Structures are given as structure tokens and as C-alpha cells.
Amino acid sequence: MENNLCPECKNDNNEPRDVCMYCQFPFKGSEKEKAVHIGAFISKQGIITDSSDSIIKSKKILFAVSAVNIVFLIVSFFLGNKLNLDLALTFLITLIIFLCGLFIEKNPLLLTIVPLFLIVGIMILNTMLDPSSFFNGLVINLIIIGSLVYSVILIQSAKAFKKKYRTG
């Protein structure tokens, strides 16, 4: 009985083959071909690590955004500058962003996209209500939005890699 387990992706090829049906590992190739293929696979597999790191960074970003919002919420409350409705909406949005950060490992894609849309939506709404507010914190907002978009891209790439090679 021949072992049909691929040494590269660890998937079982139901029958003997020349190449793995999942990752195209050359079972009957030369040692050099096998080594080159394994090296390329390991390089591609780095997307999973990058995705995990990105999720951790997104979590930190969401917690930082929540913390800054809480500080502004407290200051606005004590200064009495805002209406109760404004404070309640800010608190609700901050709570949603915080909870997304707290549970981001459970469903990384959804819990990265929700705060991303909230942040972009708030920026658009603020700009519509007060066009001069567009430039307030623009660099920080672009960094936050860019980081979350990059995280979404990495999460999708890792998901595609796992699906293609049936890993994790």
C-alpha cells in the first residue's frame, strides 16, 4: 500500500498520482523540483501568519479608537457641549467598535468590515454636515482605514490559501 499523503500540504491524495491534487507537489519529480516546490509553498503559506498578525494589529487599532472615543465622550459630557442624543450615538458606535475588537478572532472578516464601514460612514456624515471637518484628523483616519482595509485583504488571501490547500 503506497502512502498518498502529500509531504507538503499534508492532504491525502486518494490514489497514487504524479502530482498532488491540492498543491501540485511533484511526487515523481527530482529532489530539486521537490525542494523548489516546497520552498514556494512555504513562502505562500506566510500569508496565514501575516493575516494573524494583521488581526492582532486590527484589534489594537479598534481598542485605540474606542479609547479615544471614550475620552472625547467623557470630556464632552462634562463640558456639556453635546446633546444627549449625540452622546448616546457616540457611545453606541464606540461600544460596537470595542466589541468588534474584543471578538475579532471569532469572525475576523465581518468584525473588521463593520468598524471599517462605521468609521468611513462617520467621516462621510461629518463631512456632509460640516465640510470643514473633513481635514480634522484626516491623516489618522486614513491610517486607520488603510490598516483595516489591508487587514481585510490579508484575511481574504489567507482564507483563499486555506481553501485551496485545505489547511487549518
Structure description:
Keywords: Membrane, Transmembrane, Transmembrane helix. The protein has one domain (47-165). It has helices at 31-79, 84-102, 108-129, 138-165. Helices cover 70% and strands 0% of the residues. With 168 residues, the chain is an all-alpha fold. The two termini are 27 Å apart. The mean pLDDT is 88.
Give the secondary structure arrangement, pairings included.
Layout lengths: L30 H49 L4 H19 L5 H22 L8 H28 L3
Short description:
The chain is an all-alpha fold and 168 residues long. The chain has helices at 31-79, 84-102, 108-129, 138-165.
Helix content class: over 70%
Range of strand content: under 5%
Number of domains: 1
C-alpha termini separation: 27 Å
* Main sheet properties: none
Give me some keywords for this one:
single chain; 168 residues; mainly alpha; 4 helices; 70% helix; 0% strand; elongated; transmembrane helix
